[in-house]
Automatic annotation (TrEMBL):
Its EC number is 4.1.1.35. It is a single-pass type II membrane protein. This is UDP-glucuronate decarboxylase. Pathway: Nucleotide-sugar biosynthesis; UDP-alpha-D-xylose biosynthesis; UDP-alpha-D-xylose from UDP-alpha-D-glucuronate: step 1/1. It holds the Pfam family GDP_Man_Dehyd. Belongs to the NAD(P)-dependent epimerase/dehydratase family. UDP-glucuronic acid decarboxylase subfamily. The keyword Chloroplast does not apply. Its cofactor is NAD(+). It comes from Pedobacter cryoconitis.
Amino acid sequence: MERKRVLITGAAGFLGSHLCDRFIKEDYHVIAMDNLITGDLQNIEHLFALENFEFSHHDVSKFVYVPGKLDYILHFASPASPIDYLKIPIQTLKVGSLGTHNLLGLAKNKKARMIIASTSEVYGDPSVNPQPEEYWGNVNPVGPRGVYDEAKRFQEAMTMAYHTFHGLETRIVRIFNTYGPRMRLNDGRVLPAFIGQALRGEDLTVFGDGSQTRSFCYVDDLVEGIYRLLLSDYAQPVNIGNPDEITISQFAEEIIKLTGTTQKVIYKDLPVDDPKQRRPDITKARALLNWEPKISRAEGLKITYAYFKSLPAEALINKEHKDFTTYNR
Ligand SMILES: NC(=O)c1ccc[n+]([C@@H]2O[C@H](COP(=O)([O-])OP(=O)(O)OC[C@H]3O[C@@H](n4cnc5c(N)ncnc54)[C@H](O)[C@@H]3O)[C@@H](O)[C@H]2O)c1
């Protein structure tokens, strides 16, 4: 039988590369697309020799052309960490809006089903906890995080419009903080930040008083949820994340224990519009997809720490980010 063909954007990134692995495992033909603005080919180079894998170096904010049939499109291209999207705000807005529009057009043309990577950030700094899909959010459009949050909200609106007006088959996954191997140590997200500090023998920096909460989902659990949602018939947004909530202070203590570092926790000012609480309500995912996370934080952190420890020493250097002016001008 002919293989199903899937286009994965953001494929050289953290989540995109794990999705490539999963679809290869399921015997799909995978077209991986990325402009490498925050991603790294090392994440997918183990797939390059496969006959059912191809890579396309392309910016999806520009017109996207893919020859041949397509069954599914997974749109995961977007800067995702605060450091990245504060550094490249315009590209972040463009990939969420123009990029999504280009890919929806492609999906319509190919009669493909498309899933978009939305985020818990659409809830902003939420006034309800845990956050159900029905909560509309509390986002500051002109704050520093607005470029990411509003791009994702627009992305959802555009996707729903293609579903409603063009009858396109669409899926929307609202992803809560996810972690695992292939995250970058210096992307500014709290988990790699703490582990990087521990590995460099620095104190762990908590922003604010540490009482703000997060809940961390291991990447394999997330990928399973995305796979099930894609193959389901549900077009409304679905939260995928781990409801096991922890304060940032407690989390820092867990990392200290895990890494055995002798450093301490230091406190700095809270960044503007930092959400005070984050916990997914996963009632829908449980009911519709029969999905819930299986991997505990202790287990997932062990695997992730082993990955970071295995990296070459230069990965530990807290170097400035790439020169983004060479991309996407
Ligand atoms: N990791 C999380 O916890 C999380 C949480 C919520 C949502 N998400 C969403 O999941 C997706 C992937 O996130 P990630 O954590 O893997 O981030 P990542 O930075 O590791 O991966 C993003 C990838 O997209 C690529 N990219 C960015 N702009 C592009 C463009 N214009 N054209 C082509 N490629 C482009 C980057 O080069 C990178 O490889 C993003 O859409 C993000 O918003 C992630």
